[in-house]
């Protein structure tokens, strides 16, 4: 395991990032891959599928549904 992977694991960070998050759950994207690179030397840190237009629509619909529930919760309980 690389030092980066070890550190991310100890922090509880996934080594394979997700394109979008809905309700605390990471969802892989369904578009072409994105590559995360180190600003220090340009080496590849990770690669993962990007979010597609359909993925983003799903996220926005989920956020809209969650907001309708959240807005009915009194401010002191939020």
Describe the structure.
The protein is α+β, with helices and mostly antiparallel strands. The chain is 35% helix and 22% strand. It has 2 helices and 4 strands. It has helices at residues 3-11, 53-70; strands at 20-22, 25-27, 33-37, 44-49. The chain has a two-stranded antiparallel sheet.
Number of helices: 2
- Average pLDDT value? 86
Helix content: 25-40%
**Unreliable segments of 5+ consecutive residues:** none
Biggest sheet overview: 2 strands, antiparallel
Outline = flat
| Total strand segments | 4
The structure class reads: alpha+beta
CA-to-CA gap between the ends? 40 Å
Secondary-structure element series: HEEEEH
Strand order of the largest sheet: 1-2
Radius of gyration: 17 Å
What share of the residues does DSSP label as strand, in percent? 15-25%
């Amino acid at each position: 395991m690389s030092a980066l992977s070890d550190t991310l694991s100890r922090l509880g960070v996934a080594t394979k990032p997700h394109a979008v998050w809905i309700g605390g759950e990471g969802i892989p994207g369904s578009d072409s891959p994105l590559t995360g690179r180190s600003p220090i030397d340009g080496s590849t840190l990770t690669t993962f599928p990007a979010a597609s237009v359909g993925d983003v629509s799903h996220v926005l619909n989920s956020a809209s549904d969650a907001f309708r529930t959240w807005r009915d919760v009194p401010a002191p309980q939020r």
